[in-house]
Amino acid sequence: MSIRSWRELIKEDREAVLARDPAAKSALEVRLCYPGLKALKMHRLANELYQHGHIVLARWLSQRARHQTGIEIHPGATIGRRVFIDHGDGVVIGETTIIGDDVTIYQGVTLGGTGKDVGKRHPTIGNGCTIGAGAKVLGPITIGDNSKVGAGAIVLRDVPENCTVVGNPGRIVQKKTQPRKGEVDLDQVNLPDPMLERMEALYQRLTTMEKCLGEHAKRIGCTECCEDQPKPCEECDGPRGQSKPF
Fold this sequence. Notes:
The protein is an alpha/beta fold. The chain has helices at 3-20, 27-33, 35-51, 55-69, 194-220; strands at 72-73, 78-79, 84-85, 92-93, 98-99, 104-105, 110-112, 124-125, 130-131, 136-138, 142-143, 148-149, 154-155, 163-166, 171-175. It is built from 5 helices and 15 strands. The mean pLDDT is 86.
């Protein structure tokens, strides 16, 4: 990779920050104040050294970047164009990770291994993906193009294209249409909540069961189950709060 190509990649990374972060007001601010950009700049150089066999120098450069930015990227990782690491503190990217173009990664993300694999040990992230804060994507799995991993999710299995994954373990909760070319979906608020959906379904089920029990109680005249019937029946224990003597 020539110096010109390296500068072109960094320029695209800088423009990605300006396009995706409303807090970024100028190119100068991005140059000076964004650790994610600095980490990517140093990684692209370290990766070139790594590819040419300068392993120790590449590792030294990556560790220097970690100390300066809080972002640890192994120099063997392959990272595409226009990648944006927002905030960045605590981000860890493993050696055999492959990241596509137009990817957004938030703080606390781990793209790591499970400790059980050899060779390709780390995930492959498709083009246009968003990895939410604190998410863990582990093992040699693939996150399909334009998919989104919710904050705090732990993903251990492949995810198809255009999907949203949340929870621990990660579950696919939404499939969307393919976005327009160059469009990046950064919405981390309006994500489906599978636990809430299950609780609501359980609540609806309990409401239906209580209604059925109430109808049955009216038919047999039981005040234990139906408060609007003043007269107790012989099949039940009597009025609420009391029980039959033995």
